[in-house]
Request: fold
Amino acid sequence: MGHGSGGKLSHELITSLFLRYFGNDKLNELTDSAIADLPECKLAFTTDSYVVDPVFFPGGNIGNLAISGTVNDLAVSGAVPLYLSASFIIEEGFDMEQLEEIVASMRDEAGRADIQIITGDTKVVRKGQCDKIFINTSGIGIIEKNAGHISGGKLAGPGDKIFVSGYLGDHAMAVLSARNELNISSNVTSDVAPLNQLIKSITNTGAIHYMRDITRGGLATILSELVQKRDFGVYILEKDIPMREEVLGFCELLGFDPLYLANEGKVMMVVDNEHAEEILYILRQHPLGKHAAVIGELVSEKPGRAVIESLTGGTRIINMLSGEQLPRIC
Amino acid sequence: MGHGSGGKLSHELITSLFLRYFGNDKLNELTDSAIADLPECKLAFTTDSYVVDPVFFPGGNIGNLAISGTVNDLAVSGAVPLYLSASFIIEEGFDMEQLEEIVASMRDEAGRADIQIITGDTKVVRKGQCDKIFINTSGIGIIEKNAGHISGGKLAGPGDKIFVSGYLGDHAMAVLSARNELNISSNVTSDVAPLNQLIKSITNTGAIHYMRDITRGGLATILSELVQKRDFGVYILEKDIPMREEVLGFCELLGFDPLYLANEGKVMMVVDNEHAEEILYILRQHPLGKHAAVIGELVSEKPGRAVIESLTGGTRIINMLSGEQLPRIC
Reply:
């Protein structure tokens, strides 16, 4: 509890752990706010609280998830992520070695994403008042020239191709298999990864009309939101959606619809048709885009509707996730 | 649980509650990141997670606390607060009317502070996995010209006067009296308030050499940090510290040292001696600075030490809070 007091033990935790791993000229100042020089710009600002259960899962943990998730929210807005905050809510008695492992993986992921953690906060609550550890990261980035339109999706229109950057559902499966309650085991690891460098490789083509990272709510929710109040529809082909056999099998077994599975290192893009082949080529050069695929397109028929053609040729409408599929997936 | 799914119910909660209260042109876009135009500037960036227990206390609740606390972290850095993020972790079954009351008070406090909430996040965890509601707010602001030095305190030196902006300990007492366990009752209400306008009224004098809001760890911790590794000491007079009789009595009763009590609407300032009277005059014109007082000064004797002279004339050294006085005070 003393580590959350704001006094001496808090100070020790900050210097012996957080500064040791995250240290940089801005964070080291330990001022109430971090200070950074910025040029005149369009700033992107985002926040996410991470409550994933369990804290450690195959392929990652709550720490690198908290870095990647927020970096990806900036990147899909067409921003170059610059700085993150990190705020911890920790349950009294949480293992210090596990905390250090989480912090170390945050540092590593921040390095991969080429961003700095420049401000933070730690609260400790009594046993039973939170479940182990929750982490909030907020992020700021600068919108690149030629990328200002991506976030709103105003340029998206019929004929545009719909891309996903790789296999869907790996994160959801990895987290579920790490939960003892379901008694399933698998070799699938989470796809958690910062996508900013993959995304940067294609935003300057000017061909990206819209982008979203495919997290909670899955591909279905993003596609439903994309067509809401728009004068076009979405038509995708189930056969073209990249998914691992194992993830598909697991969905059948548990009755999950794979379209709603969460990912933490996958992006859905709407791409100008003329540049579709070029974009696919660039994406596949990148380790995080090797299995990128075109899964459908925007169509002028059925405006406001997202439709999927199944393996057997029938079609159905894709709706937003209703109710709740998997709690605490991120 | 469905409200945290990222799907339809999340969407409904966002539009029917968060947008209804916080709505503005940036938040309404509901993009992964909010986007704001910024001039070339020094940016201040800060974050805090709020876990106060109980969620409602005399004079405020976790919502306006989350706004004020983060606004104040920006303001004491010499920044004009511009934008906030708001991220909620909510326990399954938390009362919707209470949530609305919290959100409404966030809107009101944001209005008082003249800032906008432009991005957010909501997670819902199962019953027993968090204690009712935790809120993270992160904030960005622009450092004003002539205020760039405040945050680091580099200009602070012997002869400077130490100010506090009003009565100390009100927040701690209000929160404690709202906890049933201690069986105390009082009429004291929390001092939670956004201090940015009070602070703005004095930063352009150029006379403020250092500022901190007096939160967790209390005045003692701030003063200890101020003298750390510096070539001056602090000397304050207990008799000059503004405190309500009732708060003092309560400290005696419970054995608390008032120097360690948390506040959420009080600032400690180090002021150029030449401007001390002018600053005191300006502060006292403002409703939030009516009871501002000079409590001591920076001295060249005992460098690295903060010393207090008691009512009876004895002196003792002030140390950082060690251990933990009051958990979940903010």
